[in-house]
Amino acid sequence: MKKLSRKRKTLNYVSPENGVRINPMRKNKDCKFAFYQICQILLIIMMLVGFSSCQEKQEEIVPDETEPEQGEVVPDQPVEEDVDDDMEEDDPEEEEIDPGVPYDPIKNLDLYVLDEGQIISYSSEDYYRYGPSIMKYEDGSMDAWFSAPGNSGSQWDWITYRHSDDGINWGSEQTVMRPTPGSRDQCSVCDPGLIYFDGYYYMGYTGTDYYEGKGSCNSAFVARSKYPDGPFEKWNGEGWGGYPEPIIEYKGDPAGWGIGEVSFVIKDDDLFIYFSYYDINGGYIGLSKADLVEDWPSTIRFKNEVLQREHQDSLDVVYDEKNDTFFGFSINQRMSERSRLIMYYSGNGKNFEKVDSIKDHIEDFAHNMGISKGLDGHVNTDEDLLIGYAYGENWGRWNAKFQYIQIR
User: Fold this and answer.
1) How far apart are CA 27 and CA 31, in angstroms?
2) Residues 6+ apart with CB under 8 A from 118
3) Nearest to 185, CA basis, from 262, 96, 247, 115
4) Closest Cα to residue 311, out of 286, 278, 265?
5) Element at 14 (helix H, strand E)
6) What is the rounded end-to-end Cα distance, in angstroms, of the chain?
7) What are the sequence ranges of the domains in the chain?
8) Is the pTM here over 0.90, yes or no?
9) CATH H-level superfamily of 110-407
10) How far apart are CA 275 and CA 218, in angstroms?
11) HSE value, Cβ hemisphere, 13 Å, CA-based, for 134
12) Distance from C-alpha of 235 to C-alpha of 298, rounded to nearest angstrom
């Protein structure tokens, strides 16, 4: 039987455009080949475009820096780290302070009482000494004035004086101020506060002529002397000498304690006069000012409240040139087992704020303190300062003690 061979028949057709016979299979192969070439071209174009885009991004990220020549020293460049602001640690030295509450280093000062101190007067010796005013000189010597018992009759209090060459050993005591009989201070002179200028020691003091009050209805007075131990001539309302008149007069209810416990400071061309005010409703520390002239009591102007009195005692004020600051010292919780030394400050001498207080080495039942200061009421807080106060549980039976403190 004859084997039949089967051939694939190729169909051709004539192109209507040019009459050429075209094999359709051949045409399909040509089309595929052309399509393949087009794809390759497109792929090459896409690769070129992508490479160019990468180059542009690289140029944006990496700055164009000149390649250093061999041997050229290139300084280290700072590296900027991408740190999350929320995770960044605060630098205490660069911490921003709220401008509404400026940082004040004075508020960080602390009080230190250096030791148990020295008793310079015992209650068995004429009963008491209290309210010292302490003046320190450049050579380290000191003068001190105290409230002391009077004649146990019509004169309740006198003012005494002692001197020390070193602030430790104190000389004998002498009386330097008494009430003037029949005058506005006839009952008592006490609470001395001293300042020195233009050749005179000026002593502010508390006095009264109201016997019925048994210590109430006081006013503030002043006297002067060329020497710390007198004799003192009192301000009479127009000049010096004769019957005294108050420089700051109490005009409230006679049952109120009144005005007194003067503390002086000189600042610029003004005499700052601090005083205690206490009536039947409460009290405060007040401030008046005067010109630095011979008849300065006649120039006293205004009475401003600078500190409310609550549980603290009278305020002895000084000026610290180093910090350009006024400091005020007092006994808080006076005449109680909780009595302690307290310190205030003021930038302008008018508005006082508490800085610190301390109980260490301060006696229970302490009251009526004073602090050492220069002739003009200034201090150097780099040096130790001497404080003095009275203490004792029984009225009128008080020891007097001096102690050194530091402010730092």
Assistant:
1) 6
2) 168, 401, 402, 403
3) 247
4) 278
5) strand 13-14
6) 133
7) 110-407
8) no
9) Glycosyl hydrolase domain; family 43 (2.115.10.20)
10) 12
11) 32
12) 10
Q: Which residue has the tokens 């009526």?
A: 368
- For the record, the structure tokens of 323 come out as 């910090």
Nearest alpha carbon to residue 292 among 224, 358, 196, 178: 196
Distance between CA atoms of residues 340 and 354, nearest Å: 13
Please tell me the distance from the alpha carbon of residue 396 to that of residue 150, in angstroms, as a whole number: 12
In total, the chain counts a number of residues equal to: 408
Structure tokens of 100?
Answer: 């509404």
Give the burial class of 144: count Cβ atoms within 10 A of its Cβ; 0-12 exposed, 13-18 middle, 19 or more buried: buried
Q: How many CB atoms lie within 10 A of CB 83?
A: 9
Q: What DSSP string describes 143-209?
A: EEEEEEE--SSS--EEEEEEEESSSSSB---EEEE---TTSTTSSEEEEEEEEEETTEEEEEEEEE-
For residue 28 the two structure tokens come to 């399909």
pLDDT tens-digit profile of 265-324?
Answer: 999 999 999 999 999 999 999 999 999 999 999 999 988 999 999 889 999 999 999 999
